[in-house]
Design goal:
By secondary structure, the chain is of the alpha/beta class. It is about 40% helix and about 10% strand. The chain contains ten helices and six strands. The longest helix is centred in the C-terminal third of the chain and has 19 residues. It is elongated. It starts with 6 loop residues before the first helix and ends in a 5-residue tail after the last helix.
């Protein structure tokens, strides 16, 4: 049954010319979505960022992998990366609870491949470890350019390759007897604190409008039943 979303969706999704060829697809799928549902997707994509990202290096516990995806989704990080040279990155379905539908996970076969991809995209490599004194979440310079937070394996931490390649090191100061936190807890603290500081202090932290339109269209295809068939009927096979 058709539902008609708001007038903004019925035209170009509020992106103007930046929506390009996606404008018609967004408007089409909006006809099969309630206005409230469309508003949630549109508001969420407007709060997404690729200014910061996350790299998980050989994270083998499904619960921790799922928690990392949930942290990215909750705090507006659109893209995360994984290294899977020793083990696959397999988020626990019971923990991830579908949040992997909204976060783009880029998989790499090796640490070198991941580092090359991130550097090629302009990211600083920021290794998280309790053993280096470079900076804390409060002193880290979020405005100096895009950055990738690297989290290592649950027991061994970051690899020697990451240590050698890192531009900066980030630690969470401890006041008690413990030396460090579980990787999931550390990731939650750092992603929350740094994403908040990015939003408060970095101009242009949002994804460009063209990127927002591309992500929104993908989300809408995942949200609307039989979306591919609907688009095929409306635009033909060449429009898919």
């Amino acid at each position: 049954m058709k539902n008609t979303a708001n007038d903004e969706a019925a035209s170009d999704g509020g992106f103007g010319p930046k929506a390009g060829h996606l404008a018609g697809r967004i408007a089409c799928l909006a006809e099969f979505m309630t206005a409230d549902r469309y508003a949630v997707l549109r508001r969420t994509v407007a709060g997404r960022t690729r200014y910061m990202t996350v790299l998980a290096e050989n994270m083998f516990h499904g619960q921790n992998a799922a928690a990392l995806v949930r942290h990215c989704e909750a705090f507006g990080i659109q893209e995360m990366h994984t290294v899977e040279s020793l083990c696959p990155f397999e988020p626990s379905a019971a923990v991830v609870r579908g949040t992997d539908r909204w976060v783009d996970i880029r998989r790499h076969r090796s640490t070198d491949d991941a580092l090359a991809a991130l550097r090629g995209a302009g990211y600083r490599i920021v290794a998280t470890t309790p053993h280096r004194e470079d900076c804390t979440p409060e002193t880290f310079d979020v405005a100096r350019g895009p950055f990738a937070l690297v989290f290592g394996t649950e027991h061994a931490g970051i690899s020697d390759g990451i240590v050698a390649a890192a531009d900066e090191f980030l630690r969470i100061p401890m006041c008690g007897m413990v030396e460090s936190l579980n990787v999931s807890a550390s990731a939650a603290i750092l992603i929350y604190m740094l994403s908040e500081r990015v939003r408060l202090t970095v101009p242009g932290w949002r994804m460009p409008l063209a990127s927002q339109a591309e992500v929104l269209e993908r989300w809408m295809r995942r949200s609307v039943k039989d979306s591919e068939e609907i688009l095929r009927r409306r635009f033909g096979s060449g429009g898919l």
